[in-house]
Amino acid sequence: MKHTKKTLILGIGNYLMGDEGIGVHLANRIQKDILSPGVDVLDGGTGGFYLLEYFEIYDRVILVDATLDGNVPGDIRLIKPRFSTDFPPAMSTHDIGLKDLINALQVLGKMPEIDLFVVSIASIQQQGIELSPEIENVIPILIGQINCLLGIAI
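The structure assignment produced for this chain is given below.
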């Protein structure tokens, strides 16, 4: 039986903390789009070890998360982390969970290909489900970059 490669687009973040929820907002919007066969989307919330099973069953995981890195809000960077130390030093509130998850995958020998899109935010202090205009405006750009990474014509 031939193994079909599967990709997961995984949005991480806290939906109730404004811009910190960029990954979750993105996942919810992409879920409404028609995706290529073999591509699934998941709202991963605030991460943690409950996401481990998804990293074990997918060949490739495209993560989207917010970061407090001091860059201009809305700055998008693509990182290809292989180790927990490859993550930006100032990830958002669920940083420990993702780094621990990557360490666990390394120990288990079940590390999929990972692409991490980080979006710079100004703060995680705000409460509410709305994104700031700077972050809202980068969602179409981010979707385009994900489609390009997947080889989907825009």
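Interim note for the steering committee: The mean pLDDT is 84. Helices lie at 22-30, 52-57, 95-108, 133-136, 139-150.
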